Amino acid sequence: MQNGCQDNSRIDWEPGRGRASAPEQVVDQAGSAAAVPGNESMPKLLLIEDDKETADEIRAELGHRGFDVDWAANGIEALDKARSGGAEAMIVDRLLPGMDGLTIIEALRHEGMRTPVLVLSALGAVDDRVRGLRAGGDDYLTKPFATVELIARIEALLRRPAESRDTVLRVGPLELDLIERTAKRGDRTIDLLPREFRLLEYMMRRKEQMLTRAMLLEEVWHYNFVPQTNLVDVHMGRLRRKVDEPREAPMIHNVRGVGFILRAPA
Considering the entire predicted model, what is its pTM? Predict the structure, then answer.
């Protein structure tokens, strides 16, 4: 939240402060925002929010900015709509009836769905934000917030390069099953902790690319800054010992002073 923002640029969830829907958007009783006639390229979003007044304000603002927004008001309905795969990004409130928002995100990630997710919550403590990101959220926004920030964050998520929709990743003899959450090198099963799994998944999606410690901290640990820590090196050391056993050709390479590369054996 920024000081000095006018009320017409902020959603703060207080009764009586809502605004009428923008004229470009028509909201039907089924909870779908109708697209502006003649505009068939509107980015499709799924909003999962149980408070109708809150949802109407978000949808009106996003509709006015050129988004086609579908809406789900409870966790069960939201999971069904999310599984349809029509949304390019999702906005998910944490506290929902039927099934909470983080459970929805975890279920979708377990099924291999990589749709970008912005988590909304009134819970703004560091532990709450970390939990939302670790559940599979790509970004976390605390209520109340300025609508311009919500839109900017959604636009940033949509600009990210789309990751492969494959549910099994392979690099040389290394195989990662994103649904079963299993890893193998040849016939050997690799027992990975959740963070190690996410780290290996990130590296396999970017095989042959130099990955700096700053990149890994931001994308795997979701840090927005580079702390003075050996966190990456500790986890990478454990992962390398599991992926590259002594008699096997190494796949994870440490480039001193720069970062790490995952390569198939020559």
Answer: 0.51
For residue 94, what is the DSSP state? S
Rounded to the nearest 10 degrees, the angle between the axes of helix 194-205 and helix 231-243 is: 80
| Cis peptide bond N-terminal to 144, omega within 30 | yes
pLDDT tens readout for residues 34-74: 333 334 457 899 999 999 999 999 999 999 988 999 999 99
What three-state secondary structure class fits 102? helix
Q: What is the DSSP string of 31-60?
A: SBEEPPTT---PPEEEEE-S-HHHHHHHHH
Exposed/middle/buried for residue 246 (C-beta within 10 Å: 0-12, 13-18, 19+): exposed
* Distance set, CA 164 to CA 24, 105, 113 (Å): 34, 18, 10
68 strand-pairing partners: 44
Q: How many residues does the chain have?
A: 266
* Nearest-angstrom CA–CA distance, 19 and 8: 8
- 3-class state of residue 173 by DSSP: coil
CB burial class (10 A; 0-12, 13-18, 19+) of residue 102? buried
